Amino acid sequence: LEALSTLELDRRAVFVMHDLDGHAMPEIARALSAPLNTCYSRLRLAREQFAAFVRRRRPEAVLRNGERRGA
After folding, report:
1. Is 10:42 a contact under the CB 8 Å cutoff?
2. Percent of the chain beyond pLDDT 90?
3. Which terminus of the chain, N or C, has fewer Cβ atoms within 10 Å?
4. How far, CA to CA in Å, does 56 sit from each of 4, 20, 31, 43?
């Protein structure tokens, strides 16, 4: 929840609608009255910002291959 609160409102809206609620990008663009490519950009930026926040808060996070960081 804290990670979501760090996102700018326009990025957070797209991130939540797409990644958490499962809406399609064209639907999100219509709902937000924003160009489709703008929504894709906001989603990419939100994901990057969200991931950076999580990395800063949990540096011991498990890597994709299952190994622990620093192991």
Report:
1. yes
2. 70
3. N
4. 14, 22, 32, 20
54: which residues sit within 8 A by CB, 6+ positions away? 3, 61
Cross-strand bridge partners of residue 68: 62
| The residue to which tokens 């291959």 are assigned | 65
Q: Which residues pair with 62 in a beta bridge?
A: 68
Listed in sequence order, the residues at least 6 apart from 24 whose beta carbon sits closer than 8 Å to its beta carbon are 18
CA distances from 6 to 11, 34, 41, 61 (A): 10, 21, 17, 19
What distance in Å separates the CA atoms of residue 60 and residue 66, rounded to the nearest whole number? 12
pTM for the model stands at: 0.78
